[in-house]
Amino acid sequence: MRYFIVDDDRASRMMLSNIINDCELGAVIGEAKNGLDAIPQILMMQPEFVLIDLLMPQLDGIETIERLQQNGFKGQFIMISQVVNKEMVAEGYSKGIEFFIHKPINKVEVQMVLKRTTEQYLLRNSLQVIRQSLTNFDITDVTHTKKTAREHIQSILNDMGIVAEVGSEDIIKIIEQLLIEKHKIAPLPPLKEVYERVAMLTKNTPDDILKESKAIEQRVRRTILAAMINLANLGIVDYTNSEFEYYTPRYFDLTDIRHLMNQIEKNEQRKAKVNIKKFIQVLYSEIISKVD
């Protein structure tokens, strides 16, 4: 499991991080001292669990959770609080919080809560897979429907943990545009031209097209960086993870991913060189092979 800790008390963040690491409960992939700092990081990293303090300056725990949910975050929350207030606890439950860790932090309590939440998380995932399998299985229909290019792209982006990122829709449109124009696998046209063609789908004037094409490039760059960070986190937890083994050497430079892994382990700012052209080239090649 991947955890993100939000608490204005540095000592509490350190204690939680040490317990998670020492007891091998998962990996702490990020920390923040308030909700405002936490929101963009959590939306980019998409951890399975967010350990969040109830009372914080600027944005309290409940307000932070509401904003994350409004932005599509699907991870689970564990509330940290030294205040035992029935109204606040009730509001926490209404936001989907199922477990509380009380302050002062107790190692045994943290272990028990995180082990239980992990068990529930894995059980829910298993049930979701079973439900999805039953939904997709129709005994009256033995034919197999061929996936669309969009569905193939979404599946790959989902494997990298970025299907919910804003730039994922731009990536899908770029590949769809290349498919429409029936480019050969190599070489692809300059990315600037591709951005402009995608921008022309929604913009009309030259100025608006230019502005939107630049915005597309930035969104795509941030989304690919998020994929790199997600894969680096997977590699830290399990170097033999199937997604890590498949996507890392194909879509990215292994040196860049290892550099990100070191940054994450040292809790440094996540920075990496993003090769958009390589990512689009490999993704387009893979989609071509699937839809042909």
Instruction: Give start-end ranges of low-pLDDT stretches.
Output: 139-144
- Tally of strands: 5
Major sheet characteristics: 5 strands, parallel
Report the β-strand fraction as a percent range: 5-15%
Note the overall shape.
Answer: globular
The total count of helices amounts to 12
Order of helices and strands: EHEHEHEHEHHHHHHHH
Biggest sheet: strand arrangement: 2-1-3-4-5
Radius of gyration over alpha carbons? 21 Å
Write the layout of secondary structure elements.
Blueprint: E1 2-6, H1 10-22, E2 27-32, H2 35-45, E3 49-53, H3 61-70, E4 76-81, H4 86-94, E5 99-102, H5 107-136, H6 149-159, H7 166-180, H8 191-199, H9 206-237, H10 242-251, H11 254-265, H12 276-291
Helix pairs in contact: 2-3, 6-7, 6-12, 7-8, 7-9, 7-12, 8-9, 9-10, 9-11
Description:
The structure is a single chain. This protein has helices at 10-22, 35-45, 61-70, 86-94, 107-136, 149-159, 166-180, 191-199, 206-237, 242-251, 254-265, 276-291, and strands at residues 2-6, 27-32, 49-53, 76-81, 99-102. The protein is of the alpha/beta class. The chain has a 5-stranded parallel beta sheet, with helices on both faces.
